[in-house]
Design brief:
6-stranded antiparallel beta sheet; calcium; Alkaline Phosphatase, subunit A; Alkaline_phosphatase_core_sf; alpha+beta; 17 helices
């Protein structure tokens, strides 16, 4: 038997050994893995091979005996990135044209982007895909957008491999790779890459930011195209809907998400100061709606940046760009299109409106950049900016033409094929940028903010749609502060750049799935040599059938058949392969695609077309499809496929995307809503059922005890059915019955409001919404969590003060099958 004295000596020895094991002894093994601390000690860390993720379970190398005192513990080492691996701050703003920010010649002040450019490098030939979801999928995965099934935005997904919107498990994102290599990963802002049918609080969540494909530990942001910055009802913390704006006047998401990111930076520095982090920062700025604070609107308006109009602005920007060196001295300014009016031809009222639109947009960009600056400064305040790789991508595509010719007080108007005039917009002049508008600017500004290039967002064949400013800094490594790089690069090159900077390999297997190779090339080669030959030698582009192919300084491009601001429901399918003509440019000599060489060099053009065909086949680009609006209402997968009866037994909130069956979609069909309610003594009021809000939607509610059904037709008109008498205490059955005058999109119909089987009001509505409700609002029963469909009637949350025993929605057939859509589009076309 062991004596007590010997036992004490053995315990003391183990305590001493344990303290020694905590010393940071750094070694590199034969496989190149870096370790610190004695193996098996609580303080041991290790890098991993990184090609196979997750790393295999570390073997136990201690001793196990019946008694712990006679055993030897052995802790698995904590996984850490390689020594010297930088923190990563990846920033992507939204809908920012190449020349909007001051950093690339614009007049809108962007000091945060300037800061990164001045301490690092400015890339002048960096490209995106021309549209939101595709660019973001390519950015995060390092693969072409069709390779990761995101040929268009997720709302327009179709059932082909390149277009179904589901990022495949064999192409995991940079967040998952870094997370499994020991990084803390967090994401703030927009995620427009969740398939619509998975975009509810019911999930599944594997395609969400915190899922195993994207791989972020923490998420704070919105899911979908865009969001009101004042009342974003599609805002989530991880996978939980939140409404921090309720009861918080003046709250704005641009500031709130900066607060969130700054808070996490400070928390990590306090709790795990040595752990590298990656932050993906993707604000809604500057996608419509343009929602800066009043202070920023005044600051920009007082600068009078746009008083001379878009044509003069373009000339000013072009001169600035040559002075800055972000375009060559021999670059030509592309011509102004005939389809956009010259500034001098406009009426005084139109000029006044358009200047207001530009001021609000510029304020939004300046505000967004300022809040990004707070995040950058928070890293600097921790002393970690020197070892942080900051990549600031200014826009996910070119400037947006979606405001059409006059601008929009309400983005959902044009989404429903309603085109506001100057006179309509002027009614909202003073409120422009506030929560009473969902605004966008006129397309003339988009063309100016893409100076010196042609075209805009959506046009993948010209640099106005795809060339975005990008700045990159890592003070500890990139020493050519303020340098300019002109190599041709694409958004798929960002992920491999981050991996090389971190000293990590591209994984060949992740979570048991063999990975397709990353298709981007690292940009690290350009850091030390401004004149290094570009390593991206070939790159295809395609969006809505418009396409281009770049190879070795040449680009072949197809001009669009119609301008992207010409949105209508008349979209009959075309022979996309043969309908487009091609142009040819030598961009080594013609930086801005000004001089078409197709007629002079037909053999070269044919060679380029063949290269496009091979690349398109390789990356799942076919079949080509040039439709836009009608794809929003195309059939998509649903966890409630074929469901025509929806029954609710009480309060339910924040269910998005009724188009995919997550909630009842009332568009383009007949329907009946029946609510069985119990009214207490003293009466009741509040919301029974709603979807949408201030800018498009419907609500079924009691107002001062009287039943009301309201349709909000893009804030231009509100059509109501109202009972004359308040409901007496007791049980009642309320019903709204809509008979649709289809087939067709957005047709008229007749609504009947009933109380206990008796019609209390019935009348027609001359038109209905054809395409969408507000995508940043949600379906609710028993309350309203976003904005009200009529601010004069009620304010959110407007909870129902009685009891809903049962609420049932019965849907008639959707009267727009694919064949009918084509037929209706053809009829509309024939009438024009």
């Amino acid at each position: 038997m062991t004596s007590a004295s010997n036992l004490h000596q053995r315990v003391a020895s183990r305590i001493l050994l344990g303290s020694l094991l905590l010393l940071p002894l750094a070694t590199v093994d034969a496989q190149g893995q870096q370790t610190t601390g004695a193996p098996g000690s609580p303080g041991a860390t290790t890098t991993i091979d990184g090609r196979y993720l997750p790393n295999p379970t570390q073997p136990f190398k201690g001793e196990i005996n019946p008694n712990a005192v006679q055993s030897k513990p052995y802790w698995p080492a904590l996984v850490t990135p390689p020594k010297g691996a930088p923190n990563v701050l990846l920033i992507m703003t939204d809908d920012v044209g190449f020349s909007a920010p001051s950093t690339f010649g614009g007049v809108i002040p962007t000091p945060a982007l300037d800061r990164i450019a001045q301490t690092g490098l400015r890339y002048t030939a960096f490209h995106t895909t021309a549209l939101c979801s595709p660019t973001r999928a390519a950015l995060l995965t390092g693969r072409n957008h069709h390779s990761v099934n995101t040929g268009v935005v997720v709302d327009q997904a179709t059932g082909y491999p390149g277009y179904n919107s589901v990022i495949p498990r064999d192409a995991v994102a940079i967040g998952e790779i870094l997370r499994q290599n020991g990084y803390d990963t967090s994401w703030y802002g927009k995620d427009h890459n969740v398939p619509q049918w998975e975009g509810t609080q019911a999930g599944p969540f594997h395609n969400w930011p915190t899922g195993p494909i994207k791989g972020f530990d923490y998420y704070y942001g919105f899911v979908g195209d865009d969001a009101s910055q004042w009342q974003p009802n599609n805002l989530f913390r991880n996978t939980t809907p939140i409404q921090p704006f309720l009861g918080n006047p003046g709250w704005n998401l641009i500031t709130a998400m900066a607060d969130e990111a700054v808070g996490r930076i400070k928390m990590l520095n306090d709790v795990q100061p040595d752990r590298p982090f990656m932050i993906y920062y993707a604000p809604g700025g500057t996608h419509s709606p343009h929602h800066p604070t009043p202070e920023w609107i005044k600051k920009i308006s007082d600068m009078h940046l746009f008083d001379k109009g878009w044509n003069a602005l373009r000339e000013q920007i072009f001169a600035n760009q040559k002075r800055l060196g972000v375009i060559p001295q021999n670059a030509q300014l592309t011509s102004w299109p005939d389809s956009i009016p010259q500034w001098d031809t406009l009426s005084p009222e139109a000029k006044k409106l358009y200047i207001r639109e530009a001021d609000v947009y510029a304020a939004y960009l300046a505000y967004t950049d300022s809040e990004i600056g707070r995040v950058i400064q928070a890293i600097a305040d921790t002393g970690k900016l020197d070892n942080t790789l900051v990549i600031y991508v200014s826009g996910d595509n070119g400037a947006s033409p979606e405001g059409t010719l006059h601008g929009l007080f309400n983005e959902f108007a044009v989404a429903n094929a309603v085109h506001p005039t100057v006179e309509m917009n002027m009614k909202f002049y003073d409120a422009w940028g506030s929560d009473q508008t969902y605004p966008h600017y006129a397309v003339g500004w988009a063309w100016a903010w893409d100076t010196p290039y042609k075209w805009t967002k959506q046009i993948a064949s010209y640099f106005g749609g795809t060339r975005n400013g990008m700045a990159m800094a890592w003070p500890a490594r990139i020493k050519d502060a303020g340098g300019i790089r002109n190599q041709f690069h694409h958004v798929i090159d960002i992920a491999p750049t981050i991996l090389e900077a971190a000293g990590l390999p591209q994984p060949v297997m992740v979570n048991g799935i063999a990975q397709k190779p990353i298709e981007g090339v690292s940009m690290v080669y350009s850091w030390d040599n401004a004149t290094a030959p570009g390593q991206r030698t070939t790159q295809y582009f395609e969006m809505f059938g418009k396409r281009a192919i770049y190879q070795d300084g040449w680009i072949a491009s197809t001009p669009p058949l119609s301008p992207p601001w010409d949105l209508s429901l008349a979209e009959p399918p075309t022979d996309v392969m043969n309908a487009f003509r091609w142009e040819l440019y030598n961009i080594k000599e013609d930086w801005t695609q000004s001089n078409d060489l197709a007629a002079r060099m037909p053999e070269k053009l044919r060679d380029m077309q063949q290269v496009f065909a091979m690349e398109a086949t390789k990356y799942q680009v076919f079949p080509l499809d040039d439709t836009r609006l009608t794809r929003f209402i195309s059939h998509k997968p649903s966890y409630s496929a074929g469901r025509t009866v929806f029954t609710y037994s009480g309060e339910l909130s924040n269910v998005p995307f009724p188009e995919t069956g997550s909630a009842p979609s009332l568009l383009n069909r007949s329907y009946t809503v029946t609510a069985e309610v119990d009214i207490p003594q003293g009466g009741a009021e509040g919301m029974l059922m709603t979807d949408g809000g201030r800018f498009a939607g419907y609500g079924f509610y009691l107002l001062r005890g009287k039943p009301v059904f309201t349709w909000n037709l893009v804030a231009l008109e509100r059509v109501k059915w109202q009972g004359k008498d308040a409901l007496a205490p007791g049980k009642h059955t309320l019903e709204f019955d809509w008979k649709y005058d289809g087939p067709g999109l957005g047709k008229s119909g007749t609504g009947s409001l009933k109380v206990d089987g008796k019609v209390v009001e019935s009348h027609p509505m001359p038109r209905s919404l054809p395409i969408t409700l507000m995508w940043d609002e949600t379906f609710n029963v028993g309350l309203d969590t976003g904005t009200s469909v009529d601010d004069q009637d009620y304010q959110v949350p407007f909870k129902f003060t009685g009891k809903i025993s049962k609420l049932t929605v019965k849907l008639g057939p959707n009267e727009m099958s694919s064949a009918e859509k084509e037929s209706v589009a053809t009829k509309i076309r024939d009438k024009q």
